[in-house]
Amino acid sequence: MTLIDVKNHAHPHKNFNAIVVRQTRFKAQKIGRHYTDSTLMSHFLTALSITFPEGERFFVETVRNVRAQIEDAQLQKDISGFIGQESHHARAHEQFNQNVQDSHYHLKKFEQVFAKEMIRLRTLSHRRQLAATVALEHFTALIAGYMLKYPDFMFKGLSENMTNLWLWHAMEEIEHKHVAFDVYQQVFSNLAQRRRSMRTITIGFLTSTAVMTAHLVWQDRQHSLYRPQELLKNIQVMGGFGLMMLRLLPEYLAFYRADFHPSQIDQNDLLKKVKKTWLSTAY
Ligand SMILES: [Fe+2]
Ligand SMILES: [Fe+2]
Asked: Which ligand is nearest to the CA of 91?
C-alpha cells in the first residue's frame, strides 16, 4: 500500500480525479451460466451484483439526507458526480441481475432479504446511515482496486461486454471513493461511530457475500462442484480469495486510524492505466 500524506491539504479532495458520469457500454443481453473462467469467480461477482441496485440507491440517499449542510462548493460538485455515477451503476446492475436470473438462477430471495435489511437501515439515524455508507464504500474501493490491479484473477475469461460493466464500475468507484467520507467528516466527524459501523458492516458484508456466493455455487453444483476440473479451478480461486484478503488487510485496517482518509490509499496509477487502455478504446 502506498500512503499519501494529505493531512496538510486544506481541501484534499481538490487533488482528486474528476468524477465523470459516463453511460455504461454494457449491453443487457443474455448472460451464460458462467461468465468468467472459474465458475466460483462468476458466482462471487454475481453475489456482489445482487446487492448493488438496492445498496447504491441507499448510498445516494444517505448522502442526500445531509447534503444541504455541505457548504464546500467542490464537495457539492463531487456529490453530484457521486449521485450520477451510483445511479447509473444501480441501473446497469439491475439489468445484469435480471439477465443472470434468467439464466437459471434464483436471486429473488436474496434481493428480498437484502431489501428488508435496507428498510431496517433506513430507520437508523442519518449519522449511522451515512457511516454505513462510508464503511461500504471503503470495501467497494478496496475490491475495485483489486480488480484493476489483478484483472487476471478477477476478470479471467470475462467477455468484452461484461468487462464494460465491471471495469467501468470499478473505475468509477475509485474516482468517487472520498465523497461519502468527506460528507461524513464535514457533517458528523464522529470517529467512534465510523469505527463502530465499520466493525458491524465488516461482519455483515463478509457473511452475506459468502452466503450468497455459496448459495449460487450450490444452485450450480452440477457445474461448480461435480466436475473435477471445475472443482480444482474453484479451489485455486478460493486460495486466491484468501490471498486477496491478506493483501487488502493493511488497507482495510487503515480505515480505523483517526487520521484516515480514502485518498491515502494511492490508486491513481491504477486509474491512469485503466483510462489509458480500456477507457480510451471503450469511449
Ligand atoms: Fe457503484
Ligand atoms: Fe460507490
From this structure: 1
Torsion angles phi and psi, residue 3, rounded to 5: -105, 135
pLDDT digits (tens, 9 = 90+) for 64-81: 999 999 999 999 999 999
Q: In 3D, which of 48, 183, 178 has the Cα closest to residue 127?
A: 183
Ligand with an atom nearest the CA of residue 139: 2
Judge whether 86 and 56 are in contact, CB under 8 Å.
Answer: yes
pLDDT value at residue 11: 45
Cα 20 to averaged position of ligand 1 atoms, centre (Å): 13
Q: Tell whether pTM > 0.70.
A: yes
Q: Residue type at 252?
A: Y
Q: Could you tell me the distance, in angstroms and rounded to a whole number, from the CA of residue 93 to the centre of ligand 1? A: 9
76: enclosing H helix or E strand:
helix 73-102
Q: What is the DSSP letter of 17?
A: P
**Integer Rg of the chain from CA:** 18
Residue 252 CA to residue 201 CA, distance in Å, equals 12
